[in-house]
Amino acid sequence: MLLRKWTRAINLVSPGTLDTIWTRHFADSAQIFDLAPEGARNWVDLGSGGGFPGLVVAILAAAERPELSVSLVESDQRKAAFLMTAARTLDLRVTVIAERIEAVAPLGAEVLSARALAPLDLLLSYAERHLLPTGVAIFPKGAAVDDEIAHALEHWRFSYQKERSRTDASGVVLIIGGITRV
């Protein structure tokens, strides 16, 4: 498997999670696909790393929503090379942007995702830059989500909905819109 091979060389995912890769990474990433608005045509995944959730979204989009364009932003050049190799191997139509999130020109995403990238407060600053005002951000979060929301509300205004994670009993998936600075 491509992911296992590359993980040995560049640590795409924690080696301790390789035995539970299907639930820990693939299913966890796949659950967010169904939470996106159906008419969305531009999905941007930030800090794509090993392709979670971005490559998984692109795989599902190829089968279910071929009109959906998926862009993966990953500043680590080795991880970006993996993403390009995986996309080519899987014959996926994705754009890999090998730059820092802050350096990329605004991407105008209708859907923005990030998994295990940063605290919510920082994710919202990325969303403000790359998400359309009418777009939604989808962020899987863990047990400390309420603390992250409280901290983020000190600097941001936003609407949100919590969906229970299908793969982590203590996790949720946040669906966020209407993001503005305080």
Key descriptive features of the protein:
7-stranded mixed beta sheet; 27% strand; globular; single chain; 6 helices; alpha/beta
Would you kindly provide a brief summary of this structure?
The chain contains six helices and seven strands.
Describe this structure in words.
By secondary structure, the protein is of the alpha/beta class. It has one domain: 3-Layer(aba) Sandwich (Rossmann fold), CATH 3.40.50. It contains 6 helices and 7 strands; from the N terminus they run ααβαβαββαβαββ. A 7-stranded mixed beta sheet has the order 3-2-1-4-5-7-6, with helices on both faces. Helix 1 (2-10) runs antiparallel to helix 4 and helix 5 (120-130) packs across helix 6. The model has no long low-confidence stretch (mean pLDDT 91).
CATH superfamily: Vaccinia Virus protein VP39
Q: Quickly give the structural class.
A: alpha/beta
Task: Determine Rg (CA atoms, Å).
Answer: 15 Å
Number of helices: 6
Beta strands, count: 7
The first-level CATH class is given as Alpha Beta
Beta-strand residue fraction: 25-35%
- CATH topology name, in short, is Rossmann fold
User: Strand order across the biggest sheet?
Assistant: 3-2-1-4-5-7-6
Whole-number total of structural domains: 1
Rounded to the nearest angstrom, the distance between the terminal CA atoms is 46 Å
CATH architecture heading? 3-Layer(aba) Sandwich
Query: Unreliable runs, pLDDT <50, ≥5 residues?
Result: none
Largest sheet: 7 strands, mixed
The outline comes out as globular
- Average pLDDT works out at 91
Q: Work out the helicity level.
A: 25-40%
What is the ordering of alpha helices and beta strands? HHEHEHEEHEHEE
